[in-house]
Request: fold
Amino acid sequence: MQDVLAVVGLRPHRVAWLERIGRKCDFEVAPILPYGRVRRAASYDIDELLAEARSNLAGTQVAGIATYWDFPASCLVPILAEERGLPTPSLRAEVSFEHKYWSRLLQQRVAPRDTPDFAAVDVFTASADDAAPLPFPFWLKPFKSYSGHLGFRVDSAEDYRRALGALRDGIHRLGGPFQEVLDRIDDLPSEVAEVGGSGAIAEQIIDGQQYTLEGHVCRGEVDIHGVFAIERGEDGSTFTHYLYPSHVSASARGQMRDTATGLMQEAGYDDAAFNIEFFIDEEAGRAWILEVNPRISQEHSHLMDWVDGATNLEVMAQIALGRRPTLLVGEGEAAVAAKFFVREWRDAIVTSAPDEDRIQTLEERYAPCAIDVTVQEGDRLSELPDQEAYSYIVAYVYLGRDSEEELHEAYEAVVDDLALEVAPPG
Reply:
């Protein structure tokens, strides 16, 4: 009888992919909690989600539970897996990275030189308006968010007041259910219990070449299975594309690996994948820690598949099933691969968007290629959920090629052929 892997938030286009991995690695896939329940929902009720997941799992003998999504899916998995005695990090270890302030406290203990200055901010107190928590400029972000949502670069007192207002209006959507998760942890550090789940963190602005290190912990052993370069636009903060494999130096890779190992051990994080974003300053010999994510990055999956012939989804599945993951090697069809972000910089109405047939045609024409259009005709960009403050993502384009030059040429051709059009709002 094959092992069964239960997956939280499995989207339809990932089913075939995981089933292909299952045939290779001898397991079956059982979706629990559909994508719409754990991603882009208007609100989340943790107890309700857990009850629904338990009901869906009833009568199924599963050997592992996994997700490739951020909160709340990432916090549901350790609760559900621990109830069944399945491989999982503890909820405490998971949340110690999910909570941006708690994660910074942990980073400060492990790698103080590479942790930027930071401060917790209670956005609901009158005193928050009185003085900025750090010297300008700095970032102000919720303890829990994703995709840059409600994250602001603060350059002045006016920026700070504006950011506080936006946070007060929107922070409880994730902060409320995140507090429900925090309430399940008996031994919260006092510093974290004091600030709760609906606060914000001010962080020193750091810079350098940005990389993401992907790895996993299996029975206490930390291993790395990919390093990705994150390329940014002229504003210095907005992503243009991810590139794999990266051109990171051996010394920088070693620094990132050492930091990752220290963080996982300090948190007691085990039997799961992770990714950590760094800014590398080669001249200063620093590997600034930007963010720690206790999950794989599915944004990297196509890239690894085309370059290595296997993906981080395979690592996620193997480790959730209690197996030691097989490290990936460059045996794919492409020498390099990238994920490109298609953005609009001003509010607009989507007047034309490609249908599924059009997307499939383009994917075949530009193979290896995958296209994810995130808008539909009639959408107003300023009303899209979970967007960053400075641009609107309308599509993602994934490509594999023999050189970086060919990647960029193919990307421009795909965007031209997408026929995705917008117009100023009336």
Notes: The mean pLDDT is 94. The first helix runs from residue 12 to 25.
